[in-house]
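2024-03-11 09:14:02 DEBUG pipeline.ingest accepted 1 chain
2024-03-11 09:14:02 DEBUG pipeline.ingest length=107
2024-03-11 09:14:03 DEBUG pipeline.predict start
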Amino acid sequence: PSTSVGGGAVRVDAGGTLTMINAARVGSGTAVRGGGIYVNAGTVNIGSGSEVLVSDAQDGAGIYATGGSQINLSGGAVLAGNEATGDGGAVHLTGSTLSIASSARAA
């Protein structure tokens, strides 16, 4: 597993977009913030059975979003097995928006 300050597996910075579809998987990352995905002023779309799994972080083990980011979970998206020692095992939001629809789940 990788270890970083922000985004153990994936990092999305200002104006960037990450779209996960067709059962895509992100996981096994370790970071201070966003073990799976760290997003700052960007957009993350997770759907079609895609998963963010088994990542570790102080805050936002699955997804850490800041700076007005938009996180969209739909179509069977799954965030599971992510563990934070601080806040947000699945998702931690700071000045950002989370939309959950269509059988998406965070566990």
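2024-03-11 09:14:41 DEBUG pipeline.report The chain is about 0% helix and 50% strand.
2024-03-11 09:14:41 DEBUG pipeline.predict end
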